[in-house]
Amino acid sequence: MIAQLLTEAGIQYTVAAGNNKLFKLSGGVLSELTYGGGGVAPTITDSNWQAASLNGILYLFQSGHDPLVFDPALSTTEYRRASEHAGYTGTVLAGDCAISAFGRIWTANSTTNKDTVYFSDLLSGMKWSGGTAGFYNRFTTFFFKFFSQLSVRRYQRYDYITSLYRDWETDRKSFV
Known about the structure:
Elements: E1 2-6, E2 12-18, E3 21-26, E4 29-32, E5 34-35, E6 50-54, E7 57-61, E8 68-70, E9 78-81, E10 97-101, E11 104-108, E12 116-119, E13 134-137, H1 157-175
Parallel strand pairs: 5-9
Antiparallel strand pairs: 1-2, 2-3, 3-4, 6-7, 7-8, 8-9, 10-11, 11-12, 12-13
């Protein structure tokens, strides 16, 4: 995984995963990011992370792992679990598919739940309960019944999640 984060101040960060570690590219040199949260550092395995940025924070997802964040406002050399970030509420799914779209972080496809897409509160990737945060389960949400043959795949994640959002908006407006 190689991901870029562009802050409101115009500073660009490049973060990469490899060799079971997280790195930051700075001045043409890769340096390892260290764990800056509380307690024991999470184990980084498989280097199969998905990244999504929202409001100056880079969110990292991999199935079976706690979601991680790189927030340059806190530190440019450290990462931490999303749950350790100030303002975190709810429980974020440890999915392996993530995207930032429509002012939210969207994630799906955990080791235990392949049928639900979770989304954060509007403009806050740290809030997974309350506000406008929520989820769509393809078996219980009205429009998902029509898409029961679809599954989230990494190479289709943007098209899949955005098409589901548009369909949900259409369904939601028809009930108002």
